[in-house]
Amino acid sequence: HDHPNNQYLFVLTAVGLIGLGAFLFLLYLLYKSQIGAFRYILLCIFIILIFANYFWIPEALLAFWLIVSINNKPLKDDYLKKKNHIIIVFIILLIFTASEIYNFTSLHPKTWAKETNTRYDYGFWYAEKNTDGKTYRWTKTKSGVYIYLKDGISQNFKILCGAPLGHLPDKKQVVKIYWRGKLYDEVVFVKNREFVFQIRDDKFSDGFLEFRIDPIFNLKKMNLSPETRNLGVQVFEGK
C-alpha cells in the first residue's frame, strides 16, 4: 500500500529527479550493451516496470542482473574509465550522501507524524469504541506506538484485559511493556481488569512504547464467538 506499482515512480519518490535520470541512464547503457534477442527481452522488462516495481524484490533484481550478464557486449565508450566521468560520478554520490544526511531528520516518519499529528504505530487492530464511547485498539502479539513525553511524562495509557482467561492454558495473560526497546513494566492478568500507567523518563522525550502479549486468543477457534481476529489486550490512550 505504500509503494507505487511503477518502478520508475518508485525510484522517483525514493531519490528524486536526479536519481531517476541516473536510473534511466543506467537502463540505457544496459540496453546498448546487449545484442540480438536480449535487447528485446530487456525492452520487455522495461515496459513491464511501468506496471510493477519488481526491483523491490531481491530475487527479481538478481534475475534481472543474470539476464543482463548473459549476452552483453563491451561498450565502445567505457564511461567509467575516463577520469572526468569518475569525478562526475563521485560528485553525484557525494551530493546524494550529503542530502540524505541533511534531510534524514525531516524525512523520518516520526518527525512528520508529530508535525501532522498522525499516529505512528504497528501491530494494532482498527480503532473501536466501548459502551462508554471511549476509543481503544486491540493489540496483536506485538504492538507499538511512537509517543512524545511532556516534561518527562507521557499521557495516560490503560490496558484492559478482555481475554477469556479460563480458556487460556495457564488461565492468565502476561503483558510486557517496553519503552525504547527496554522492559519498562510487566503486568500479569489473572482476572479481567484494567491497568493504568504513564511513561516517565527525564532523559528521552520520545520513543516507541511497545506491548508484548502472551498468549493472544482467538474466540472463533475457542468456539466462543464468530470473532476471527487474534487478539491481545485493549489499549486506551489519554484520559
Provide key terms for this protein:
239 residues, alpha+beta, eight-stranded antiparallel β-sheet, 5 helices
> N-to-C terminal Cα separation, in Å?
33 Å
* Radius of gyration, CA atoms, in whole angstroms: 26 Å
Number of helices: 5
Q: Which secondary-structure class do the elements indicate?
A: alpha+beta
Helical coverage, percent range: 25-40%
Ranges where pLDDT stays below 50 over 5 or more residues in a row are none
Main beta sheet: strand number and arrangement? 8 strands, antiparallel
In N-to-C order, the SSE pattern is: HHHHHEEEEEEEE
Coarse shape: elongated
Give the tally of β-strands. Answer: 8
The fraction of residues assigned to DSSP E strands is: 15-25%
What is the average per-residue confidence, as pLDDT, rounded to a whole number? 89
Structure notes:
The protein is of the alpha+beta class. It is 35% helix and 25% strand. It contains 5 helices and 8 strands. It has helices at 7-32, 37-48, 58-70, 83-107, 109-115; strands spanning 121-129, 135-148, 157-160, 173-179, 182-189, 194-197, 206-214, 234-237. Strands 1, 2, 3, 4, 5, 6, 7 and 8 form an 8-stranded antiparallel beta sheet that branches. A hairpin with a 2-residue loop joins strand 4 (173-179) and strand 5. It is elongated and about 70 Å long. It starts with 6 loop residues before the first helix and ends with a strand. The relative contact order is 0.11.
